[in-house]
Amino acid sequence: MQFHGTAKVNRLGHLEIGGIDTVKLAEEFGTPLYVYDVALIRERAQSFRTTFDTLGVKAQVAYASKAFSAVAMVQLAEEEGLSLDVVSGGELHTALAAGFPPEKIHFHGNNKSIEEINLAIEKGIGCFVVDNFYELELLEELCAAQGKKVSILLRVTPGIEAHTHDYILTGQEDSKFGFGLENGQADSAIATALKSGHIDLLGIHCHIGSQIFETTGFLLAAKKIMAKLNDWKAAKKFEARVLNLGGGFGIRYTSEDDPIPASQYVEEIIAEVKNQAEAYGLKMPEIWIEPGRSMVGDAGTTLYKIGSRKEVPNVRQYVAVDGGMSDNIRPALYQAKYEAILANKALEQPEETVSIAGKCCESGDMLIWDLPLPKSSSNDLLAVFCTGAYGYSMANNYNRIPRPPVVFVENGEARLVVKRESFEDMIRLDLPLKEKVRN
Ligand SMILES: Cc1ncc(COP(=O)(O)O)c(C=O)c1O
Ligand SMILES: N[C@@H](CCCC[NH3+])C(=O)O
């Protein structure tokens, strides 16, 4: 198996990440445990940024914090010179609490509330990615009430079906997101935005979907939008300063995945936009992107302790771990595939094929089907790779299972950045049926 980032096997035959033995991490912080390889996140951020810099293209690389939002992660994104994409009041609050510069925050969402919009206006965020006519009107109204002006991008759906799971497709015409590019909605949104007194229309946004391995969809989206920008320049005297082509760059979860490097997505996108701009005689817009998964996905590993085992004779061996769909819902939601090893027996050869079950009361709570492993027993440590994106961020308390903590490892040091939830946390918001009667 090909390891990611700094992951390797040490002389004890244990999996090591960021220069730390994962067996030690499990002893110190308990299991399940999300472990992030910080050096790999830095490497990913730098490869996106340096490609733009090398090609001399004005750009913003915004980390899509929905992939993994936590104060320390937002601070790491700032250290790496990234902008930040948030999609809810909670993600915005996390960013602000982390001290992230508001002017580098981009606010997404197809149903932003009045409270969320007001908070973002008040804090002076960099730009709203406006999703629909309701939001466009509301934003103008709320800006007027606060006497403020905001910058926006209009999110369009270019009518592209990228090759990925149906649930993570977003660029097709029949989508809950954005203004249709081909059906006249984007044209009227532009007209409305240009008339608004409190809105500065910077440009256009589009995001075609997630876990995409080819550049074709991005290039087609760029081409379609540039053609529209040409029409809008002629018809509305609107010239976009920014073209945001979203995130969605695919990563290698298993050996079946064969992603292209981040630099290649960026180079091909830049070349396409440049060609189109030259062909139409348009100014080259700034290019913004917003990778989430490709920034943190393969930097995350989840450590679990193995517990029970059940054999279905002549069918399958179920091996259960101390987490499951509560800390990684992706296999249940998208039939997502993962690879794993025994972290404490990393040099041992596979001897049996087992299926890794979670501990939730749900038959669909299976993390990995048919995984070749060395002979395992209770208390062995299972390391599931590539859980850094949409693992912790989609974690939940089904069955009142507390969410695991998050540890950052780098250069031989481990830092706890999110604490483990406790049973007390599980009832923190509960109120009794009846107030206790006092004597
Ligand atoms: C608007 C938008 N931008 C960025 C992203 C990040 O996508 P990914 O994590 O695939 O890079 C998403 C999620 O798919 C998104 O909806
Ligand atoms: N949460 C999804 C991706 C959705 C991305 C957000 N638009 C995943 O785990 O793959």
From TrEMBL:
InterPro entries: Ala_racemase/Decarboxylase_C (IPR009006), DAP_deCOOHase_LysA (IPR002986), De-COase2_C (IPR022643), De-COase2_N (IPR022644), De-COase2_pyr-phos_BS (IPR022653), Orn/DAP/Arg_de-COase (IPR000183), PLP-binding_barrel (IPR029066). SUPFAM superfamilies: Alanine racemase C-terminal domain-like, PLP-binding barrel. It comes from Mesobacillus campisalis. It catalyses: meso-2,6-diaminopimelate + H(+) = L-lysine + CO2. It holds the Pfam family Orn_DAP_Arg_deC. This is Diaminopimelate decarboxylase. Residues 40-296 form the Orn/DAP/Arg decarboxylase 2 N-terminal domain. Pathway: Amino-acid biosynthesis; L-lysine biosynthesis via DAP pathway; L-lysine from DL-2,6-diaminopimelate: step 1/1. Its cofactor is pyridoxal 5'-phosphate.
